[in-house]
Amino acid sequence: MAVLADTVLAMTSGELLEGRPSAALQQLERAIDEYLGTVRDGGYERLSDADLLAELCGLEKLRRQLPVADHRLLPRLERRDLARRLCAPGVAGLLQSLLRLSAYEARSRVHAARLLGPVLAADGSEVAPQLPAAARMQEEGQLSVEQAKVIARTVELLPEAIPDQVRADTEQRLVTAAESVGPRQLGLLGQRMLVELDPAGVLTSDADHERHRRVALIPQHDGSYVLQGRLTPGCGAQLLAWLGPRSAPRPIVDGGRDGRSAGQRLHDALAELASLAVRRTELVDSGAPAQVIVTMTADQLAHRQGWGETSQGQCISVPESLRLGDEAIVTLLIQRANGAVLASGRTSRIANRRQTLALIARDRGCSFPDCDRPPEWTQRHHVVGWADGGPTDVDNLTLLCGYHHRHFEVAGWRCEMRDGLPWWTPPKWLDPLQRPRLNHRIVRPEQR
Known about the structure:
By secondary structure, the protein is of the alpha+beta class. Helices cover 43% and strands 14% of the residues. Strand 3 and strand 4 (126-127) form a beta hairpin.
């Protein structure tokens, strides 16, 4: 097991100090090392069937208790403002960069800490968690992370008009049920309880709907997407009014029945809506055009094979990209051998549409190291300032999200262009050698 106590970032007076975990954590690490050594030496083989099952349950109990430490640690990271001082957009951004977590996992941990961890008062003292029964159950190792998420989600969906005592009783019922059922059954129970508490839906207000609104379009490893969300009544009604008629079964040419399932028909109607939306060609405030942008090499385009990449970093086949051009506006951007895009300078301070497309192809979003904000959330930044004579040229521009655009100079970072790519040099307190860094999304074609 890797030594956990090697180097940990700690900020004092703007300097990077070498920190070490607590003695208790180091003791835990040694105990785990010793346990894993026993396991590798065949320790499980010496256990009876009953003991082996007890070992499984014991390990699960420890696994369930570990998040309790997170619930007390993460609020203190936020209280000490460590994320901002390390130029990370919030605690979730710090976890994502420092621990190499996915954005979803990082946000989930922060959200769980806010619900299940003690709340830090202004004087530093701890106040009871928002979900005390679930927190107590997890601290005892009797509640899994999945079960805790189901309970938290159910309580969050309760209308604001529900009395606090009923809210607490609902949480307790779910916690009690979690002793005997898994996450799926627990979720179904939660749904029934929501209906029982508000069968006519009269307690749920517009403010509740606004509070719960969300949509997530989650990229998958195979290039597809998973759509999840909860729409307000108004948004849902409008969307369904548009999709409904267009997702009805359509007889094929010879009069046979439509072979698509209901879900496939609704998907195709949504694809039609997306196709209509991306035909808009004007630039929005972020500078990103509402259209499909696919980056590929000249060789891929010439041979009509291989995989291109969208501005979101998702793979899409070259033939599919070209077919998509028949239904929507698709901009194909061709890269140099080193991944840079040919410059197209202008005398205007504001980058034009052609330059913005080139920046999207090259940077694929915010170019600050470890940031994963997409192009639609970025602004165009002059590496050499406009006031200092820097030209509005692709070789002097890079995309930055609003957060890093405002904070990178304060945190001591510098950006410079090398071979047409934006390299970032960290401050000495973060890296005494000040080794330049390139955002992980900016990858040369030959390295793919």
